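Sanity check. The docking grid for PRP depends on where the pocket ends up, so I'm generating a full predicted complex first rather than guessing from homology. Inputs follow.
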Amino acid sequence: MDQFKNPSKYVEKILLNEETILQRVQELGKQITKDYQNKDVLLICVLKGALVFFADLIRDINIHFDFDFVQLSSYGNSTQSSGNIVFLRKPLIDINDRDILVVDDILDSGLTLSYLKSYLLSKNPSSLKICVLLNKVSHRIQPIEVDYIGFNIPDEFVVGYGLDFNDMYRGLRYIAVLKDEN
Ligand code: PRP
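Predicted complex below; grid placement will be based on this.
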């Protein structure tokens, strides 16, 4: 597809290159490893966007863990959050009494993670923490505390490393801002 053959046609600028991302992911993995020593953590990856981040992160977590996936719908095909959050997939592993770490690619309005957090808390976990790769600081509608943040980023629409625009660009190894005409 053209998006891979000629990404510079679509990309305004590269915000985070591959080396920068992987170095930060390694740091997050180390921190999580330290914080969850002697615990049996259940990692929950928020599909689809977090998949790439998650795959790298779990290879930098050196403790015993299990993982599961959830999927929620918030954006549809536009670049704005609709505010209507629904589960497309709920966790299959029992949350009760588990140490849960939710892993998502981006925290934007906060609506998705707030909804997911409330749901998970209603299942009585032992603990619940959240890890996001990207934090779009100035875009919050629903305040939410997160425990691990990869990068704080400006209010720009970003793609790559799992993040999409109309399901394109998820496979880029870097995170980029798209040109306006997309
Ligand atoms: C993205 C991202 C977060 C959510 C953040 O998912 O993965 O889960 O939006 O936005 P918010 O803070 O404004 O709620 P998206 O709904 O685009 O689905 P996808 O990961 O399947 O692309």
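Relevant for the grid: The longest strand covers residues 127-136.
Also worth noting: DSSP finds four helices and nine strands in the chain.
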